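Example 3.2
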Amino acid sequence: MNSSPLTTDRAKIQKQYAAIFFFVSAQLSSIQMYLQRRNRHLVKQEDAVVIAIHLLGKLLGFTSEQAWHRFVTGNLFTNGSFLERSRYNRRCRALGFAIKWIAGVSKTRPTSCYAVVDSLPLPLCHTARMHRVKRFQEIADIGYCASKQQWYYGLKLHLQVTDQGLPMGYVVTEASCHDRIATESVMTQIPHPYNFGDKGFISRELQKRLYEEYQMALWTPSRKNQKHCSSEAWEKWIQQKRKVIETVFSVLVDQYRITGIRANSMIGFEVALDGILLAYSLVTLGLVEF
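Structure, written as tokens:
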């Protein structure tokens, strides 16, 4: 898999960077008190620049931080004013909380008619190596992907999106975690009264608890062996409503390469994941051109 984007339109990239920088700068002004540190006047680039460059890399689909840093210094900061690669990576990890906070702000903007929740496998290695890999072995494990009908080693992203495809809450678990277990944690981050899920979320107890404690309805299709099955029209209606999250997953995998994160630390992995979801959110909101 290539680690660089297909586009070489420097004017378009400059325009994307300017749009991201403008949005990030406006949001960072609200949390400047939490960004204070020693020798801040000596920094080579401001925090807004570092975050904007990080988000631009995720927007363009870079999976290699080394390749992305080489691209930045060769195309955007050709005068040598940008940070060294190791310093840039440390600054990105240190600003992880700011990226997460900005992502939270972007989620509260539009109104939506309903939300959809589902999970996406995040494999960390090839299937042939899953019994001997050591990457993230303290939290990752082997799970089964029903849609691809194959086992994999890695993590699982549980994500909730609006009917417009805007990411809301998310949780990352081990690959073997069942969708029902993480559902409550995902859906209660930004509660929505009307939610749709697939057959993996079928649980009368879960649906009852969500409704009684959080006033949230969760509708799912029926299994073939259920005693009380829904009508064919209802099944098709739910399937149509759920298409939005399938489209979101397709875009995140193919264009943003969310399954190709190369970080070897959980902090780095989380910063990369938050960057991808935030970059996608800015495009969905129409704030940045893809």
